[in-house]
Amino acid sequence: MTSMDRESQPVCSSRGPQTIRCAVIEGTQRLAAAGIDSARLDAEVLMCHALRVEKSHLYVSLDEHLEHSARCRFGDFLIRRLRREPVAYITGRQEFWSLDFLVTPEVLIPRPETERLVEIAVECAGAFGSDLPLRILDIGTGSGAIAVSLAKELPQAQVLAIDRSLAALEIARRNAACHGVADRIQLRASNLFDKVGEHTFHLIVSNPPYVARGELAALAPEISQWEPRTALDGGLDGFDYYHGIVAEGFRHLMPGGRLIMEIGAAMGRAVAELLSAAANYTTPEIYQDYAGKDRVIVAHRLPAGMPTSAWSLS
Predict the structure, then answer these.
(1) How many CB atoms within 10 Å of residue 126?
(2) Helices and strands of the chain, counted as H and E runs
(3) Bridge partners of 260?
(4) End-to-end alpha carbon distance in the chain
(5) What is the pLDDT of residue 307?
(6) Does the pLDDT at position 81 exceed 90?
(7) Taking 70 as the threshold, does the pLDDT of residue 89 lie above it?
(8) What is the pTM of this model?
């Protein structure tokens, strides 16, 4: 029997009764043996999905008998995880900004690091006051995680969320409706600024694709084999989308408006140089995530005719 054959053997079998605890332990062992670092957490999440309960309920039910139907579902989920399918795609859910988001293989799975972008965008929004209607553009919205989170945090905000993928926009639409902000988020198919028109915004936010094409194959299989390539591939050097956003972004920012982008941990200096060379922005600021890695870059659009050195960041 090959290793793949062993991985494909379901938990659901003809053997006797099994407790939830035993099934979770067995699932953890199988995932760990396959080299999955988050084996215990994944097994617990998949068991919750099989039982259709929240994790708090799982912990008080560990010694209960595992029903046959749930045992079979759990076995199927384990097989999918052993094939390195991300847990979020198996469950169809991912938490972001303390909100529950629908995710499918058509969209990038929202990462905890991206919450730093939302946090900084909310801080930047404060510079415009709470009474002013706030206009935000989210480039490459994917699941809508950034757009929805900002709409929830900023009740005065109107968000235009764009993406090239119609499938992704449908997921974003469903997430906006689920969280009660669909009336303040307009979704539009657009490649960067193609369909944005002449609109200007207080904030432009983006988590663009920034993986260099030659590095895609080296990513973890959960990413390289399952997540949408178009949401990862940043071109030969990873900078294609930064070039496009920086070159045109200032035209869609009101004077003093903020351009806020997620960056790869080693990309801060190069993206800052792009912004400085454009001469339409203030000297950018780079913010770290909570792991101490460069994660977000922010620049303001300069008022017309004002040199960079004459504008200070607030």
Answers:
(1) 9
(2) 12, 9
(3) 205, 298
(4) 64
(5) 42
(6) yes
(7) yes
(8) 0.89
